[in-house]
Specification:
Helices cover 41% and strands 26% of the residues. It is α+β, with helices and mostly antiparallel strands and 160 residues long. β5 and β6 form a beta hairpin. The model has no long low-confidence stretch (mean pLDDT 92). GO terms for molecular function: DNA binding; RNA polymerase binding; translation elongation factor activity.
Protein backbone atom coordinates (compact mmCIF):
# COMPACT_ATOMS: atom_id res chain seq x y z
CA UNK A 1 0.00 0.00 0.00
CA UNK A 2 1.44 3.34 -1.06
CA UNK A 3 1.59 5.91 1.74
CA UNK A 4 2.09 8.77 -0.71
CA UNK A 5 -1.06 7.73 -2.58
CA UNK A 6 -2.95 7.76 0.74
CA UNK A 7 -1.52 11.20 1.49
CA UNK A 8 -2.78 12.47 -1.88
CA UNK A 9 -6.23 11.03 -1.16
CA UNK A 10 -6.29 12.86 2.18
CA UNK A 11 -5.32 16.12 0.49
CA UNK A 12 -8.00 15.66 -2.18
CA UNK A 13 -10.66 14.99 0.45
CA UNK A 14 -9.53 18.01 2.49
CA UNK A 15 -9.70 20.16 -0.66
CA UNK A 16 -13.30 19.00 -1.20
CA UNK A 17 -14.12 19.74 2.44
CA UNK A 18 -12.57 23.20 2.11
CA UNK A 19 -14.61 23.97 -0.98
CA UNK A 20 -17.81 23.00 0.86
CA UNK A 21 -16.82 25.02 3.92
CA UNK A 22 -16.06 28.09 1.80
CA UNK A 23 -19.43 27.77 0.05
CA UNK A 24 -21.12 27.54 3.46
CA UNK A 25 -19.26 30.67 4.61
CA UNK A 26 -20.45 32.59 1.55
CA UNK A 27 -24.06 31.42 1.95
CA UNK A 28 -24.14 32.30 5.67
CA UNK A 29 -22.52 35.68 4.98
CA UNK A 30 -25.04 36.46 2.24
CA UNK A 31 -27.88 35.54 4.60
CA UNK A 32 -26.40 37.66 7.40
CA UNK A 33 -26.03 40.73 5.19
CA UNK A 34 -29.15 40.44 3.04
CA UNK A 35 -31.44 43.47 3.34
CA UNK A 36 -34.46 41.31 4.14
CA UNK A 37 -32.71 40.00 7.25
CA UNK A 38 -32.16 43.37 8.91
CA UNK A 39 -33.61 43.11 12.41
CA UNK A 40 -36.92 44.93 12.83
CA UNK A 41 -37.12 44.29 16.58
CA UNK A 42 -35.11 42.59 19.32
CA UNK A 43 -36.71 39.22 18.57
CA UNK A 44 -35.77 39.26 14.91
CA UNK A 45 -32.40 37.51 15.10
CA UNK A 46 -32.04 35.72 11.75
CA UNK A 47 -29.30 38.07 10.53
CA UNK A 48 -27.42 37.79 13.82
CA UNK A 49 -27.67 34.01 13.83
CA UNK A 50 -26.43 33.84 10.25
CA UNK A 51 -23.48 36.07 11.22
CA UNK A 52 -22.56 33.66 14.04
CA UNK A 53 -22.89 30.76 11.60
CA UNK A 54 -20.65 32.53 9.07
CA UNK A 55 -18.02 33.05 11.77
CA UNK A 56 -18.12 29.38 12.75
CA UNK A 57 -17.93 28.27 9.14
CA UNK A 58 -14.95 30.56 8.56
CA UNK A 59 -13.17 28.98 11.54
CA UNK A 60 -13.92 25.54 10.13
CA UNK A 61 -12.49 26.55 6.74
CA UNK A 62 -9.34 27.89 8.42
CA UNK A 63 -8.89 24.63 10.35
CA UNK A 64 -9.12 22.71 7.07
CA UNK A 65 -6.53 25.04 5.48
CA UNK A 66 -4.18 24.39 8.41
CA UNK A 67 -4.72 20.62 8.13
CA UNK A 68 -3.96 20.81 4.41
CA UNK A 69 -0.72 22.69 5.13
CA UNK A 70 0.33 20.00 7.64
CA UNK A 71 -0.53 17.20 5.22
CA UNK A 72 1.40 18.91 2.38
CA UNK A 73 4.52 19.17 4.57
CA UNK A 74 4.11 15.62 5.87
CA UNK A 75 6.68 13.11 4.60
CA UNK A 76 5.82 9.53 5.58
CA UNK A 77 8.96 7.57 6.41
CA UNK A 78 9.58 3.85 6.22
CA UNK A 79 8.91 1.90 9.40
CA UNK A 80 11.92 1.62 11.71
CA UNK A 81 11.46 -1.24 14.21
CA UNK A 82 14.02 0.31 16.57
CA UNK A 83 11.77 3.37 17.01
CA UNK A 84 8.46 1.57 16.81
CA UNK A 85 5.33 3.07 15.30
CA UNK A 86 5.74 6.74 14.44
CA UNK A 87 3.85 9.33 12.44
CA UNK A 88 3.53 8.00 8.88
CA UNK A 89 3.16 4.35 9.87
CA UNK A 90 0.68 2.12 8.11
CA UNK A 91 -0.53 -0.30 10.79
CA UNK A 92 -2.63 -3.46 10.67
CA UNK A 93 -4.39 -4.14 13.98
CA UNK A 94 -6.55 -7.01 15.14
CA UNK A 95 -9.07 -6.65 17.97
CA UNK A 96 -10.30 -9.21 20.50
CA UNK A 97 -12.94 -10.39 17.97
CA UNK A 98 -10.19 -11.13 15.37
CA UNK A 99 -11.39 -8.20 13.26
CA UNK A 100 -8.54 -6.58 11.36
CA UNK A 101 -8.25 -2.92 10.48
CA UNK A 102 -5.72 -0.83 8.58
CA UNK A 103 -4.67 2.51 10.09
CA UNK A 104 -2.56 5.28 8.60
CA UNK A 105 -1.08 7.48 11.31
CA UNK A 106 -0.83 11.05 10.03
CA UNK A 107 -0.90 14.67 11.12
CA UNK A 108 -3.99 16.15 12.71
CA UNK A 109 -7.03 17.22 10.77
CA UNK A 110 -7.17 14.28 8.41
CA UNK A 111 -9.33 11.78 10.25
CA UNK A 112 -11.21 9.92 7.52
CA UNK A 113 -11.70 6.55 5.86
CA UNK A 114 -10.04 5.89 2.51
CA UNK A 115 -10.06 3.03 0.05
CA UNK A 116 -6.77 1.70 -1.28
CA UNK A 117 -7.29 -1.12 -3.72
CA UNK A 118 -9.82 -3.37 -2.01
CA UNK A 119 -8.84 -2.29 1.50
CA UNK A 120 -10.43 0.27 3.78
CA UNK A 121 -7.87 2.43 5.57
CA UNK A 122 -8.73 4.59 8.59
CA UNK A 123 -6.59 7.73 8.79
CA UNK A 124 -5.99 8.85 12.37
CA UNK A 125 -3.72 11.36 14.04
CA UNK A 126 -1.26 10.80 16.84
CA UNK A 127 -3.56 12.99 18.94
CA UNK A 128 -6.40 10.45 18.80
CA UNK A 129 -6.51 8.01 21.75
CA UNK A 130 -5.62 5.04 19.55
CA UNK A 131 -2.94 7.05 17.74
CA UNK A 132 -1.31 8.01 21.06
CA UNK A 133 -1.45 4.41 22.25
CA UNK A 134 0.22 3.15 19.06
CA UNK A 135 3.25 5.44 19.23
CA UNK A 136 6.39 3.45 19.96
CA UNK A 137 4.69 0.05 19.67
CA UNK A 138 6.06 -2.74 17.44
CA UNK A 139 4.66 -5.76 15.64
CA UNK A 140 3.21 -8.22 18.15
CA UNK A 141 2.65 -5.61 20.86
CA UNK A 142 -0.67 -5.32 22.68
CA UNK A 143 -2.35 -1.91 22.54
CA UNK A 144 -4.97 -1.27 25.23
CA UNK A 145 -7.05 1.91 25.07
CA UNK A 146 -9.88 3.25 27.14
CA UNK A 147 -12.35 5.73 25.70
CA UNK A 148 -14.93 6.84 28.25
CA UNK A 149 -16.04 3.61 29.97
CA UNK A 150 -15.13 1.36 27.03
CA UNK A 151 -11.86 -0.55 27.18
CA UNK A 152 -10.50 -2.06 23.98
CA UNK A 153 -7.54 -4.31 23.31
CA UNK A 154 -5.69 -4.55 20.00
CA UNK A 155 -2.64 -6.38 18.76
CA UNK A 156 -0.27 -4.92 16.18
CA UNK A 157 -0.07 -7.47 13.35
CA UNK A 158 1.99 -5.55 10.76
CA UNK A 159 3.61 -2.16 10.36
CA UNK A 160 4.85 -0.56 7.13
Amino acid sequence: MDKFFLQQQVLERLAEDLLQAEQAVRAAHETATHEENIAENKYDTLGLEAAYLATGQARCAEAIRQAMAHWRQFRPRPYDASKGIQLGALVCLVDSDDKQQQLFLGPGGGSMKLVSGAQLVQVISSEAPLGRALLGKCEGDEVPIQVASIRQQFEVLRVH
